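Session log. Operator J.P. requested a structure for one protein chain; no other inputs attached. Running the standard single-chain path with token output.
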Amino acid sequence: MNGNLAVKVKTSCKSKEVAISFCLTNAIEREVIMKKQIFDLIKQYDVIIIHRHERPDEDAYGSQCGLAELIRASYPDKKVYRVGKDVEFLHHLARMDNPPDAAWQGALAIITDTANTDRIDDKRYELAEKCIKIDHHPNREPYGDICWVDTDASSASEMIYDWFLENQNLGLVCNIEAARLLYAGIVGDTGRFLYPSTTGRTFQYASELIAYGFDRTKLYAGIYELPLNLIKLHGYVLNHFEILDNHVGKIAITKAVREEYGVSTADCSRLVSVLGDIKGIKAWALFSEDEQIRVNLRSKGPAINSLAEKYGGGGHPLASGANVANWKIAEQLTEDLVDLCRNK
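Structure written below.
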């Protein structure tokens, strides 16, 4: 259910309580209808191409590829493609497909875990006949013929499994590979179930997915084991981070440092949680330099997604990101983060 509803309003007025209850009921009904509409479109199309966001994480791959596996298991005759740039550290989950441009003609495109169109990996989704958005980020940019956004969900992967359960009686099939991918997406976006976005529903769905019997030990190793050069960079982060005013942390990884350790900006992003272990820290930024400077923002309280949006990025209240052109702008962003954490 979408977390933007007025159900959280407290009132002692009976008429308002009825209105809020009616609003909630309508919202639940609308979401059920929307899930059925997504099912109907998937059933209708012979070619389905699934996209996710640029610079993907486990939930991007998990929701994208998990949905693909659900559709393939349910409809073996359909052509289902996963598209976007392949990322090496996610190869243990899946590899992307590379269909020709003609594949999008008359096809259905589905975009998972992507709040805005600028971040969609592979812009050929625009060639598709129909488009569906499935996402759990704040809905700053509604797009697609169907736009299903649930900000209460821990992850897009949780949403995909919820969609499966809603339509399971209509013939949808979940196999061990779909379960593995969706579980990986949930684990990745909840930080192994440590983040506040984790709910009772998250644990329930995770337990159901585990029952399919995939190798969790192998999956966790793929997600959390790091190559030696990245372990050494981890040491660099611990030796060079700064603690600024208002309990804000910062680590800057220049292009020279990155090349010294032989890592990409995507590799650097895997270390963003390191500063979260510091007692008393409120929020922190990890900067990694390439042609632009990639910014990973995390918080233990103050909402940081509006700050990310100010610099052309976005994300969740406690986990966001952006790209900035140079170190001067990165410093301005850092100052804004320090101000944001004042009196928080």
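Operator note: The radius of gyration is 21 Å.
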